[in-house]
């Protein structure tokens, strides 16, 4: 299957790196940071499938797909990836022309199975919506175990350390934005943290960022101090686990 090539389209660098690490063992890949870059790559190169984020600057995923189809750039499968997750959202994305839909946070197993399904032209696939059984633990180690099937422990460590660095930077930005009541921008930063922590199974941060983002969305724009304190506490706890190798030592 290594002869197949995937185009990853996502504006968030850490998302791209996580996807690259998940699929890199099985497939060749290239990445684009937005829809315009994706169109340019599709015109210049041959790919077998596209993983398309929906919310992107410059050109969003739906608009990008529309151009691909109108200009007949390619007829390969294009998979929508988005934080939208209910059945109605899935049907909407399929109605706009996407071949399939993967909800964020993306589970490595779901990503690989979806790619395999479309590259092998299978006719039937059961869509199973399951609640994360490990949501009450700080780290969902099943994510690490899935990644270990395809990558070295050192590669996986680097992904979690990259997330830690990004999370620290985003948390500092959120604190500054809170001083100026920049609620929309805070929501954007939280959305990145929520998606990446969910994908990597960092539940301690996923739960905090989910609640914080919902508060911003619901216009509860007062007393953010407690939310920021909880975010910093969860980040500090995760940092201790990563820097002391506590979440990896059992796999060495």
Automatic annotation (TrEMBL):
Keyword Cell inner membrane: no
Biological processes, Gene Ontology terms: phosphorelay signal transduction system
SUPFAM superfamilies in the cross-refs: CheY-like, Histidine-containing phosphotransfer domain, HPT domain
Keywords: ATP-binding, Cell membrane, Membrane, Nucleotide-binding, Phosphoprotein, Transmembrane, Transmembrane helix, Two-component regulatory system
Residues modified to 4-aspartylphosphate: 53
Species assigned in the record: Cyclobacterium marinum (strain ATCC 25205 / DSM 745 / LMG 13164 / NCIMB 1802) (Flectobacillus marinus)
Entry-linked InterPro entries: CheY-like_superfamily, HPT_dom_sf, Sig_transdc_His_kin_Hpt_dom, Sig_transdc_resp-reg_receiver
Places the protein is found: Cell membrane
Molecular-function GO term, any one: ATP binding
Superkingdom in the source lineage: Bacteria
Cellular component GO terms, alphabetical: plasma membrane
Name by which UniProt lists this protein: Response regulator receiver and Hpt phospho transfer protein
SMART domains: REC
HPt domain sequence ranges: 152-245
Domain named Response regulatory: residues: 5-119
Membrane topology: Multi-pass membrane protein
Modified residues (Phosphohistidine): 191
Predominant location category: membrane
């Amino acid at each position: 299957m290594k002869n197949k090539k995937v185009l990853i389209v996502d504006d968030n660098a850490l998302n791209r790196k996580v996807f690259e690490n998940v699929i890199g063992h099985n497939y060749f890949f290239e990445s684009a940071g937005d829809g315009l870059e994706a169109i340019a790559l599709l015109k210049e190169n041959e790919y077998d499938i596209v993983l398309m984020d929906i919310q992107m600057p410059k050109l969003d995923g739906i608009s990008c797909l529309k151009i691909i189809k109108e200009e007949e750039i390619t007829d390969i499968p294009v998979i929508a990836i988005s934080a939208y997750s209910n059945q109605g959202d899935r049907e909407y994305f399929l109605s706009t022309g996407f071949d399939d839909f993967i909800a964020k946070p993306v589970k490595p197993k779901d990503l690989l199975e979806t790619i395999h399904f479309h590259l092998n032209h299978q006719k039937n696939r059961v869509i199973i919506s399951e609640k994360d059984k490990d949501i009450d633990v700080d780290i969902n180690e099943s994510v690490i175990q899935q990644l270990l099937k395809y990558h070295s422990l050192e590669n996986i460590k680097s992904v979690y350390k990259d997330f830690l660095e990004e999370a620290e930077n985003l948390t500092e930005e959120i604190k500054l934005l809170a001083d100026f009541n920049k609620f929309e921008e805070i929501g954007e930063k939280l959305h990145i943290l929520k998606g990446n922590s969910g994908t990597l199974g960092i539940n301690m941060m996923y739960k905090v960022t989910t609640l914080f983002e919902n508060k911003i969305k619901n216009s509860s724009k007062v007393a953010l101090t407690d939310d920021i304190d909880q975010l910093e506490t969860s980040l500090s706890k995760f940092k201790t686990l990563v820097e002391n190798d506590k979440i990896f030592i059992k796999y060495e």
